[in-house]
Design goal:
alpha/beta; Rossmann fold; single chain; 10 helices; globular; 45% helix
């Protein structure tokens, strides 16, 4: 009898542990909307301080074993709130994969001057003095002559590779599936990543890209890449507003056509022109479409 009681006790304890574990798993996977966090990273490589805003999927839990793709979103001060709201809305109907969004931004609050100067440096891959001193660019946010200094993209890419990405990988449950999305000069930088560091990211949002930079130098970079590569394993979304002007709209479509003509093995490229949208009004539309094309469950 004592042995029988002992066996029942072990069975009871085993069942109890099973149900407790099941309840714990259910609790950790319960959906929680609006999961956001913030961090600050001071780069030892280029001396710049970066604010990181994190949007987590509804079922994210540090206690789970699930690991998630990460989308790095440039110009986070402007784009992160839109991306977080868009993913929250689409999650209601389960339209997107579960993934982490990391908005990257500089330390600015009430003045766009540091934003303009720092992104100008980080997002441009070559030094163009004539652009740095162009009064039209300086006047956008009332910058003084000498405030703009281009050509820091290689350094910024190094910051992403060696500092920001490892920081996120340490803090969150991530996998090696990474994406990057940028707008304007950020779109230029995203294209730069595609053709100079294709090992680092697998998904790319290249929106309203400043392909006019340095006499359309990005066309030459892509051509050089195609001369030595027949494959490019990436999912890419390129977009532009129809009302962005001759230096933007036809240049983006020409670049997309050129890339498509290479027939890179493994490349999935979608391009789109948003009707009746200007350079600044197109932002919300292109962010939403970027998420759908790169992370939509029903994407084609």
């Amino acid at each position: 009898m004592a042995k029988l009681i002992a066996n029942y006790s072990k069975l009871f304890l085993g069942l109890l542990m099973f149900f407790v574990a099941a309840a714990t798993r259910a609790q950790s996977s319960a959906p929680t909307i609006n999961q956001k966090q913030e961090h600050v990273v001071r780069s030892s490589l280029n001396g710049t301080t970066y604010n990181l805003w994190i949007s987590l999927p509804m079922r994210y839990s540090a206690k789970d074993t699930v690991r998630y793709p990460v989308l790095y979103l440039l110009d986070g001060g402007l784009n992160f709130p839109i991306a977080h709201a868009a993913r929250t809305a689409m999650d209601i109907m389960g339209g997107l994969e579960d993934f982490i969004i990391v908005g990257i931004e500089y330390s600015w609050q009430k003045s766009l001057q540091p934003w303009m100067a720092l992104r100008w440096k980080d997002f441009t891959h070559s030094r163009v003095v004539s652009a740095d001193t162009n009064r039209a660019f300086l006047n956008l946010v009332d910058l003084k002559k000498g405030a703009l200094s281009s050509g820091g993209a290689a350094d910024y890419l190094n910051v992403l590779r060696k500092e920001i990405i490892p920081f996120i990988d340490k803090k969150y449950r991530t996998n090696k599936d990474r994406g990057i999305s940028g707008f304007s000069l950020g779109g230029l930088f995203t294209a730069y990543c595609l053709f100079t560091a294709p090992d680092l990211f697998q998904r790319y949002g290249i929106n309203s890209p400043s392909f006019w930079w340095n006499d359309k130098e990005m066309f030459k970079i892509e051509k050089s890449f195609s001369d030595s590569h027949q494959s490019l394993s990436a999912r890419v979304f390129m977009s532009v507003g129809a009302l962005e002007g001759n230096s933007m709209t036809p240049v983006m479509t020409a670049f997309a056509d050129s890339v498509r003509s290479r027939n890179y093995k493994g490349l999935m490229l979608t391009s789109y022109v948003f009707e009746n949208e200007t350079h600044m009004s197109v932002g919300p539309a292109m962010i939403s479409r970027t998420l759908v094309v790169l992370y939509g469950k029903n994407r084609k």
